[in-house]
Amino acid sequence: MRRCYLYIIVFALLPLFAHAGEVDQLRKKVDPYLAHVEQQPDWLYSRLQMYWKTHATDVFCNAETYDHVGGDRAPEPTVKMNGTRGTKSYYNRPKIEDIVPYDDDEEGNVTFINAATGKMEKANPNKTGCNIASLNIQILSIARDAARLYQLTGDRRYADLALPVVRVFLGGIYYRNVATDISHGHMQTLYGMTTFEVIHEDAIAKLYETYPILRPLMKSDDQKICDGALKKWAENIIANGVPHNNWDLFQAEFIAKIGLMLQPDSAYADGHGREYYLNYILNENSVRQWSLKKLADYGFDPHTYIWYESPGYSITVLGDFSDFANLLDEKAGIDLYQQLPQLLKAIPAAMEYLSPARMFIGYGDSHPTWFSTKSIDNVLSYARRHHNGALYARFDSLRKAVQPTAPASLIGHYVRPLFYTPNASWLVQRTGMDQRHDLMAALNGSLGNHQHANGISLELYGKGYMLGPDAGIGQYLYSGDDYKEYYSQMPAHNTVVVDGISTYAIMWSQHPFTVVDTCGTVGRSHSVLSFIEPETNSDQQRTTGIVRTSATGGYYVDIFRSHRKDGNDKMHDYFYHNLGQRMTLTAADGSSLNLKPTDDLAFAGGHLYAYSYIYDKKGAPMTKNVKAQFTVNDSITMTMWMKADKQRKVYQALSPVNMQYDRMPNQPYAIGKQPVLTFVARQQGEAWRHPFVSIFEPSSQSEPSEIASVDYFTPKCTDASAVGIIVRLKSGRTDYIFSSATGAEMRYQGMKVKGYYKVISKQR
Q1: Nearest to 712 by CA among 692, 697, 730
Q2: What's the burial of 396, exposed, middle or buried (CB within 10 Å: 0-12/13-18/19+)?
Q3: What is the layout of strands, in order, in the sheet containing 596-597?
Q4: Which of 98, 156, 284, 685 is placed for a possible disulfide with 94 were both Cys, Cβ 3.0 to 4.6 Å?
Q5: Is the dihedral of CA 191, 195, 196, 199 positive or negative?
Q6: Among 700, 694, 580, 713, which Cα is nearest to 640's?
Q7: In this structure, are strands 440-444 and 457-462 parallel, antiparallel, or unpaired?
Q8: Is 80 exceeded by the pLDDT of residue 488?
Q9: Helix or strand holding residue 408 (H, E)
């Protein structure tokens, strides 16, 4: 019995111990600032970035950059707007201690640190990126920590530190108008109160953790101003933004947090309080703010449950959606998981994005890394809260399976040999989930949000890495010229460019591929995809196959057909990029191609700017079948064999660094510093009856190549584009691969097949 009482006492004291630890940590952060504030009450809030001198009610921006302030003089200082939409800045923000109090002038300038000289100087906000808002958020974070300390200890000194920060900041929102775009462009529909995008109003999250603690300490008039500021903020987020992608979700979360900070509807003359804003995000639809149900119905495929954006954004949406569901469940008693059953299906469905390395793959605007368990953890919390043992067990198993060190058999339950989701125009083929020995080919078109102009793009996995990846998003994300001109364009992807000009709208794109034929088994799979290249109105068809050769090896088949519908083909360029530090390009028999430096592959001639980013180019006529080898750390090699064509030239080159995998954990080398090894084949005229026919095989020192040779044949067929490949293995097996663009009957040496793609294996 004594032991039982002891347990009861211990469990009763656990929250106190936990709070004691939290108090100690918070005091370490807050007390240095408290010492300043006790000496000088305005020490902290005077460092907020406000229009202290002008009290400007109006901010004028030129699209994505700050321009000037104006309007009437408000009764109080107003909050400064960020300097730019993009993050690039020529100035760094000072430490809190070094900020000039009440820093402002008639132009709204700030005193920041020149990044080049390291000196503090006056700067126009349009040179400071997003540092103004981030500095205010830093100060609001100090106020949040102080408010939490007051809540835990009752020490009024901490409340007195936080109160003026919150009151001054929210007063600055209350008396300021939404910025005006003097260019009268699209940006006017995106502006927040403090940032150029309503989805980056992160100050709201800090206030959500602060204002409910402090509000009871405020005078009635101050409460009215602060509540009014929050309501103005919510109305702006409803009025601005984007309803049809992840923005809507971010906006809804900000609106919900504002709603939860407010009093009931009955407390306000306009009836816009807590219930109003919570109901709005759940059930109302306006031009730029859809209800969560409409968003879920729009974004999740009704059959695959994949979100329609590129993988990085899709997985983030799952985490944010489930975060939001838990918030509403805990704070408002609203069960979003029941209202939106797609959520519980979408999280396990997203496992299809995992490569055998356990990282999600990355086409479009993505940075592949380990799969975040945020969404899974949120469901586990929900299941515990609702005592749902079956749901908890299901998602606990999923969490164990996605761990980087989990056995392949665990994650294997959640992925398929062939998977296609039409709403993201993405298809994957895989032999399994063994990190070292399995193969995976991922193909994507351009449908949905955060997509690139890439035609039918191909990524190839081997020996632990995505060896043939997409290029990524660029040095300065979406705002850099490198993103607009290269990373988002076809020459940065493993695809085919027609006449040097193939492109189309990026980011929000409507150019999917069409699935012509597929077959997927554990050891062998194939897909035949077609695409209409819109710039030249060309037909393109890509056939991709995976063939297992042993328990540790296998190879890929890549057959790409491309031609203009009007027959005015000038050229077709086949691009392939591979990780690694060394590339060799020779004839398939090992003889030299006599590669020469060249000015080919250039923007000159009216081609894409992207060609200008390709350098160290050496080329030669394709008089023989060729073999290219891409080597990673002298231990892993991707070998490519390509069929010769007399109207073709091949090139060895370098491309800009890969920004897709530059953040990847356990990199084989410094990927973000190494130019990308690049192979290009240029076909003069059409490439339909003269398709690009290639074999790719990943190998390593411990698991060397299993292919002895690669040859080609032309099957008897009514389809003039039909091709055949002979892959001879060192084991004595020979694979005969047949490919037809029309699915016609093909014959060769007594073999007869019919279809788009067939493999016949014969053992010697």
Answers
A1: 692
A2: middle
A3: 496-498, 571-578, 676-684, 648-655, 615-621, 596-597
A4: 98
A5: negative
A6: 694
A7: antiparallel
A8: yes
A9: helix 408-411
Tens of pLDDT along 394-450? 999 999 999 999 999 999 999 999 999 999 999 999 999 999 999 999 999 999 999
Residue 97: count other Cβ atoms within 10 Å of its Cβ. 10
Look up tokens 């006017």; give the residue: 188
Measure the CA–CA gap between 384 and 138, rounded to whole angstroms: 34
Q: What is the mean pLDDT of residues 159-183?
A: 98
Cα–Cα distance measured from residue 644 to residue 646, given in angstroms and rounded to the nearest whole number: 7
Judged on CB neighbours under 10 Å (0-12, 13-18, 19+), 112 is buried
Q: Determine the Cα angle at 509 with ends 371 and 416, to 5°.
A: 40
Backbone angles phi, psi at 668, to 5 degrees: -70, -20
In which region does residue 432 sit, left (phi positive, over 0), alpha (psi from -120 to 50) or beta (all else)? left
Handedness of CA 717, 719, 721, 722 (dihedral sign): negative
Sequence-distant (≥ 6) Cβ neighbours of residue 116 within 8 angstroms: 90
Residue 550 is encoded by which pair of tokens? Answer: 């042993």
pLDDT tens-digit map of 64-110: 999 999 999 999 999 999 999 988 999 999 999 999 999 999 999 99
| Residue 504 and residue 512 in contact, taking contact as beta carbons nearer than 8 Å | no
CB 344 within 8 A of CB 400: no
Q: How far apart are CA 745 and CA 718, in angstroms?
A: 8
CA dist., res. 231 & res. 670, Å (int): 48
d(CA 227, CA 229): 5
Single-letter amino acid code for the residue at 559: I
Count of CB atoms within 10 A of residue 207's CB? Answer: 27
The predicted-structure confidence for 624-643, as pLDDT tens digits, reads as follows 999 999 999 999 999 999 99
For 216-252, the pLDDT digits (tens) are 999 999 999 999 999 999 999 999 999 998 899 999 9
CA–CA separation, 299 and 243 (whole Å): 11
With contact defined as beta carbons under 8 Å apart, do 695 and 557 qualify? yes
The dihedral sign for the CA sequence 50, 53, 55, 56: negative
Please calculate the CA angle 531-535-541 and round it to the nearest 5 degrees.
Answer: 20
Q: How many residues belong to the chain?
A: 764
